[in-house]
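PROTOCOL LOG
Step 1. Enter all chains and additional molecules of the complex.
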Amino acid sequence: MKKFILLLIVLVLIVTMLVPSVLAESKNTVTIWSWRGQDAEVWQKVENEMKKQGVDIKIEFTPVMQTEYDSKVNLSLQTMTGPDLVYSRRLPGGYMQTLIENSLYLPLNEKIDLSNFPQAALNSVTYNGKAYGVPFAVQVVGIFYNKDIYAKYNLSIPKTWDELVSNAEVLQKNGITPFFVAGKEAWILNMQHAMCGVSILGPEWIKDLTEGKTNFLDPKWIDLNRKLNDLKKYYQDGFMANSNPDQDAAFAFGQSAMVFFGIWGYQNWKTFNPDINVGYFMVPPARADQKPYAYTYMDGAIAMTSSVKNKELANKVLEFVATPKFGTIFSNVTFNISAVPGAETPDDPLFKIVVDAYNNHASPYVYWVGSVFTTQKPSLGEDVLSPGMQAMYLGKITPEELAKMAQDAISQWYVPLMKK
Amino acid sequence: MKLKQGHLAIFILPAMILYTIFIIYPLISSLFLSLYSWSGVGEKIFIGFKNFQEIFNGFFRKEFFNALFHNLYFFIVVTTLELGLGFFIALMLATKIKGSRVFKVVTYIPNAIPIVLVGFMWGLFLNPQVGLINQTFRALGLDSLAQPWLGDPNLALSTIMLVNVWRNLGFYVLVLFAAILNVSPDLIDAAYIDGANNWKVIWHIIFPLTFSTIRTLIILLFIWSFNTFDIIYSLIGVQAGPIRSTDVLGTLFYRTAFGGLGSSATDMGLGAAVTVCIFSIVMPVSVLYVYLIEKKKRSI
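Step 2. Run joint prediction.
Step 3. Record the structure below.
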């Protein structure tokens, strides 16, 4: 009798283990992976909307840590265990190009209407004349500040770098952390450098760099490195041990006045603290007679992978993603600018300022995301500015050595800089 | 009844099949892959020993030897702490001090916590602004001791090792406790009767008689230290920052083979070459371990 009961328990356990896996492989499920954990609500709304349109669908959205995302996607696609759809990176770029060339990303079906998208957006997803994803967001990065803290100390939006430093000085004297910086995540330091560069160096200088008329040993580049290194005394103590979630929490709860970040952070800050009053300004230039610029870029696309199990249903999702309805859902949930033209944007003051920066002040020349300097290895972003900024902030290298690091790395493969 | 060889083969066949699929095949496959350059997709390009050349004499040399040095440092410090403290605590438990039963359980509890949870918990405890460790120091007026534990390249690896010791100490305490209990009480009693003090009993009787267990644990710790990955991954991530100060061969391999933000090179062939190097270091020690076990069996 005891043996019989034991056998029954084992059988029940086996059945309960199998049931979830059977459900997971339901033919009405479309799986999506992303590095953006904050988009879970977007896909819940997309699922509801598609059901209203008569599509029998379940969308299973899985966020993956930003720093592990590309490796996880690569590995899963090679072993055919990947999802139906992924958030893909942009072109030009090694990641996406390699996956396209090896047929791990599939070209879009002709039914998906991309005719309304601007050409710049389509350039980021098109390879050899075929589109490999539906662009989903435009990102704007810069300095986000706590308006209440600024008002409390009668601070105004700085027009020059020196005014920014003065504001930081006032805040620090009053016991407020001027900047919260997530130094543990090197990509954030890379982004910080790039957003400062478009204003302080200016698009014309970056254009000259791209054409080889100047190089990374230019005193202006070294001066930017030095400005950032000098700014670290206004960061929170122990900033090299803090990560992105620490930054979000600290800024949302008013523990720091400013962060160098992107509009995608707004959703998290509002979720943590609905009462937070956030403002935005572009990194101010070095001199008052210079124009500030915003670093903006196409964040990526939703792409179909070779591991797709429900191709027809996945195509229906992509068709929906290319519509203004998706753009409206996306923008209103995440407070990000949708790449889909015609989307209704949220009625939010911060959002309007950021959209204005994108429409009227975007730098036409950049050196981080979307730039030629990140298309090969060693990359200016991952291999130079990410580790280099950490090393500089830790005092292991000087601003001059960071400049040399950049020149030595990029001149290995970028022809216009080889002769210098 | 003597078992026929054929019947023996049938009994070990399932285990051999699994062993071949999950151990032998990946090992041989890695050896071959280390001779190629392969991004993980598309064609593999045969390059001979170029990967090894890059590791020992090329662009990858600095990163590889940095990681190797960290593994050695990890082994020395962790072994000293885990065996040293483990032996001391096991001795205390063997003297049947009050509360030893409870203490045995308490020491082992961290060992039962999944490593990912250990990383998550200690990541919170070590937060420089609001973490338990720094808050405690500040509350005691010891502000100068409140450090960015995982953000300082001079402290990060040592901090990770201490977390590792905290988590694993219980296991060594239990193993060494069992070894100490195996020492005949008559020997100890005789030593006390002859006028030996506690230190002489420990040094001349208990330690020599538990040395074979300690030796086995040292060998196992060597193997585990060179395979370490999970504790660093859960506390820092595969970038092994700040500025590679927590990089070990495991994280180096993962980053190189599978890519991700912060990889200085992404090539599965190069990653496979790193694993061949790890294997070359660990294998002789594993052979030594098996030899010592066999030697002990023959002497019984």
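Step 4. Note key features.
Chain A touches chain B at residues 65-72, 74-75, 77-78, 98-99, 101-102, 104, 183-184, 186-187, 236-242, 246, 250, 255, 377-378, 382-383, 386-387, 390-391, 394, 396 (CB under 8 Å).
Chain A has two domains: 20-137+298-352, 140-296+356-417.
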